[in-house]
Each structure stands twice: as structure tokens, then as C-alpha cells.
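Colleagues,

For the teaching module next term, I've prepared a clean inverse folding example: a structure given as C-alpha cells, and then the sequence designed for it. I'd like students to try predicting residues themselves before seeing the answer, so please don't circulate the second half yet.
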């Protein structure tokens, strides 16, 4: 089953993730900590309303999202 990420698309998709479904639960994005682009897609490090950090990566080629928890020390954020 593909990952579901809800986004705002202002000038191009994806522009700003607003929430996502992961492990049967909906997570609302409180803030975007970091954004990056690669030749294959766009990535976001986000903090959720619950205070958890996740990496969201959108693959242009596959037109799909990959979601994974980001275990970073607090001082790195």
C-alpha cells in the first residue's frame, strides 16, 4: 500500500506537506525543519504536532512518497 501524504501545491507539487498517514495513524505536520531536492525528488524533515520527527521523500519517477521516522538528537534540530 502506498504512503499517503497531504500537501499544498502552490507552484509545483509537492510544495508543503501538511499531514501524512503512517502505521495506520494520521500525523499532522507542525513545522518543516529542512527541505532538500535531489535529481530524483524532494525531501522534507518535519516535526509533527505530537513532537515526532519524520523524513518524507517524494520520488518524481515513481510518483510516490516514502516516510520514515527521523531519530535525531534534539540539539541537531
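(Answer key — instructors only)
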Amino acid at each position: 500500500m502506498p504512503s499517503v501524504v497531504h500537501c499544498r501545491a502552490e507552484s509545483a507539487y509537492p510544495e508543503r506537506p501538511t499531514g501524512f498517514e503512517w502505521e495506520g495513524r494520521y500525523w499532522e505536520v507542525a513545522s518543516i525543519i529542512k527541505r532538500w531536492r535531489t535529481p530524483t525528488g524532494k525531501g522534507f524533515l518535519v516535526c509533527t504536532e505530537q513532537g515526532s520527527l519524520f523524513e518524507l521523500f517524494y520520488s518524481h519517477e515513481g510518483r510516490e512518497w516514502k516516510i520514515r521516522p527521523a531519530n535525531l538528537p534534539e540539539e541537531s534540530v
